[in-house]
Design goal:
By secondary structure, the chain is an alpha+beta fold. The chain has three domains: about 50 residues; about 45 residues, SH3 type barrels (Roll), CATH 2.30.30.100; about 30 residues. It is built from three helices and five strands, in the order H-E-E-E-E-E-H-H. The protein has a five-stranded antiparallel sheet with strand order 4-3-2-1-5. The longest helix has about 45 residues. The N terminus is likely disordered.
């Protein structure tokens, strides 16, 4: 009878270890991994913040970044009212300022759009009348 009880308990011991491993894996995928992803996104947002960006600090203070370095950011929280905060205190960027790099890319895109619009205008001038165009213009001629 004792040997039957001991063989039964060794099987349940393996089951407990497997259950603990399964709980750990589930905890990793549902708690640890998403938190790491949020932390990476927050750090990249804080690194990308620059002068002119409107931000909200983790404490809820709204302000505009005047200058920023590796450790701190100088915020304008009201006209002529400045406060220095740790860069890690940036909670969210509300509005991004137009930086020089972005403006040069926008100018290239604008030039491409102007070329496309010019092409569309040229094709509109070359439009040949169709029978549908004649049908629309007939009632106009009768009303005159």
């Amino acid at each position: 009878m004792i040997s039957a009880a001991s063989s039964q308990s060794s099987g349940s011991g393996l089951y407990i270890y497997l259950l603990m491993a399964l709980i750990f894996v589930g905890f990793y995928f549902f708690a640890i991994r998403p938190q790491q992803k949020r932390r990476r996104e927050t750090e990249s947002m804080q690194r990308a913040a620059g002068p002119g960006d409107e931000i909200v600090t983790v404490g809820g203070l709204y302000g505009t970044i005047i200058e920023i370095d590796d450790e701190t950011a100088l915020l304008e929280i009201a006209p002529d009212v400045h406060a220095r905060y740790a860069r890690a205190a940036i909670g969210k960027v509300v509005n991004r300022a137009e930086h020089e790099e972005i403006e040069s890319e926008d100018e290239e895109v604008d030039d491409e759009l102007v070329d496309e619009v010019d092409e569309v205008d040229e094709t509109a001038d070359e439009h040949t009348p169709t029978p549908a165009d004649d049908a629309v213009s007939e009632p106009d001629k009768k009303s005159r």
